[in-house]
What we know:
TIM Barrel, chlorophyll biosynthesis, UROD/MetE-like_sf, decarboxylase, 7-stranded parallel β-sheet, globular, alpha/beta, 15 helices, two-stranded antiparallel sheet
Amino acid sequence: xxxxxxxxxxxxxxxxxxxxxxxxxxxxxxLIVEISLxxxxxxxxxxxxxxxxxxTPLPAIGVEFEIDDAKGPIISDPVVSVERASQLHSIDLxxxxxxxxxxxxxxxxxGNGAAVLGFVGAPWTLATYLIEGRxxxxxxxxxxxxxxxxxxxxxxxxxxxxxxxxxxxxxxxxGAQCVQIFDSWGGQLTPVQWDRWxxxxxxxxxxxxxDKCPGVPIVLxxxxxxxxxxxxxxxxxxxxxxxxxxxxLDGRKRLGDSVAVQGNVDPCVLFGPEWxxxxxxxxxxxxxxxxxxxxxxxxxxxxxxxxxxxxxxxQTARSLSLDKLGSLSAQFAAAAAS
Length: 338
């Protein structure tokens, strides 16, 4: 599950009370490993995702940030001028050794019991924080830069593509067996804008990974990607993550057979009764077909999600076989009709 380690788990909240700084929890190896393993020990998913943040590598390129519990990420010196952009430097991976150490430790801890996953933010998504200086609902500053100073925005995005591409390689060389690129705010762009301001830089990162770490699976996810699927299919990613607003059958048809899919159960289903979770999982798995599908949510686990529901999600997935899907779907249809 995306965001499978976090505040919905009592074990995490207890640890967070003891270590209230998010930066500390996500930048100290012992804490990263402990938090990353919490959901694996509780639910035994097939993937162990390193507990981190898409902003974690920013100080290594010259952008400091803080996390405010109420406001989220804060960058006090945003990158909004040529002078400030010129201060960005190539990524200093020595400042990210805690990530490498954590991935190596996780590989030792889980052995062959699960795949260890790393992740990064896409250049456009990271640039929204660099330029806006904080979370935003309007993206006025960065979208304004698209028109008022496109050369500056291009230079920022290109710098991020180079740096985060190297960071992906670093994660893989440290032990990540699969990596995911989150274009969390890619869906805030029109499809034509995404082609200009996001896709080329994602493609550049993917080429870097394929050149230096061939064969490692790459997953690409963009929140609100219903209008982007066809454009995402030829980025070079091996797997395209669907958000919950896309019907899995429709997504499969639009993407074709050249890529695998990930997703895409609505995270809010986990607030419902067990039968509704089972129904949602069966529906997604049936529509995804018999190959090239990673079952996941269509977005991250929501705060307040019952842990018993998360457990049922994974138990349902483990109980399924392709020959069961038809009969289960028929049972649900009959129940709905009655």
